Amino acid sequence: MQGQARLMGVIGMKGSGPVSDSEGQAAARAFLAINQNMSPKAARAAIDNWQKVLQRQTAYLQKQQPMVDTYQRKIDAFNTGQNGAAAPRAGQSEGGYTFLGGDPGDS
């Protein structure tokens, strides 16, 4: 049951980035704490605990956002360079090679 609860807790955090073992355990505890036989006050406390787990994960993701943005800019710049490369012109030299013209795939 504990393993299934951890899995359910982690599934609830899916899409929110990496989940450490301690976060998975916290999610499992929060998930296990909620049941249909508890009082409204206890249910509210369990739900609040679950929200705290999710808020910690959200804060982690927000902290990582600048790094994600940096990587995305680098990927975009690389892709732009790849897509923006024009075919060489006949007679053009590059890297010690001179393009003579024609399609190199035609033999």
TrEMBL record:
<feature type="region of interest" description="Disordered">
    <location>
        <begin position="1"/>
        <end position="22"/>
    </location>
</feature>
<protein>
    <submittedName>
        <fullName>Uncharacterized protein</fullName>
    </submittedName>
</protein>
<feature type="compositionally biased region" description="Gly residues">
    <location>
        <begin position="98"/>
        <end position="107"/>
    </location>
</feature>
<feature type="region of interest" description="Disordered">
    <location>
        <begin position="82"/>
        <end position="107"/>
    </location>
</feature>
